[in-house]
Amino acid sequence: MRAASVSDYRELARRRLPNMFFEYIDGGAYAEATLARNVGDMEAIALRQRVMRDMSELDMSVTSLGQSFSMPVGLAPVGMAGMYARRGETQAARAAAAAGVPMCLSTVSLCSVEEVAATGAAPWFQLYVLKDRGYMRELLARAKAAGCPVLAFSVDLPVPGARYRDVRSGFTGASGLSGTLNTAWDGLTHPAWMWDVWLNGRPHTLGNVTGAVQGSRRVTDYLGWIARNFDRTVTWKDLDWVRETWDRPIVVKGVLDVEDAKDAVRAGAQGLVVSNHGGRQLDGVRSSIAALPRIAQAVGGDLEVYMDGGIRSGLDVLKAMALGAKACFVGRAWAYALGAGGEARVAKMLATLRSELAVAMILTGCNKVADAGRELLDLD
Question: What is the pTM of this model?
């Protein structure tokens, strides 16, 4: 298949990856109602087509938190990307740097923050606060030393959401001989992945938390440890604790409610991400694009408002910009592309988003994406 869209990369990833890893990328929480809303609500927004305008000049760049993006797109943090392609986080970081957009590295990445920064482009760093605050402080110091310019502080995961697909696939909960055999068969029936990742992509550890987990050999052991150590006591006061080590911009990730957005402003955050964790946490909540306008209106003048969830094309990027986002972060889109074929596919996916955004801008009469507003939408 010659991939032309994000949905094509999804299909290629489904074919290439063992089922348990594809389902981990693709699935959401519970009945996946919010996962569906993220996409469906975005699709329901109509752009307003305009004609006979001089569109010879297009400016897709934005500036945010002291950085210049070639287009208002970034790679959202995706856990365990190194299980989708060999040292996957480093491949994605190179593709993002070449495209002139930021990448945000997950706490639960296979590649450590130092390994990713060694590609030449230090990523943003996404932090989950775990019970071992001493180790978290060390991790923050490592991210700072690696040159990470922005911290994305995830606030919507005090406990993991129930993901039925992961149980059905054997990704979580599988044990004993039958679980081992099913896992082995899943890998053996995907030989290209076996060669690329299983044999040549080691070590299969979570590079950012390896020092805190003793005696584990499988990536699922690390994930189990992390799940047991999420901290339900985290409050806005913990941003003060973060600032003891981190003196660079902080973006609060995982906000859906206007009152929480106002709390982020009061806590001194420099940005927030309107996000429901890709529909992977509390099912039944509103989509990110539905939550975005009210939050942007309430706090957009006080900090940078980004969003993730449901972005599948450059047209979606323009819709989000028109509703108040400063930039959009894509998660599944780059995970599918990485799983489909590594760095080259991620680069092509980003080029596709850029091309689609250009078409959307031209046909809505938007010369400068940073100036996009509700006038680009057909809201009647």
Answer: 0.96
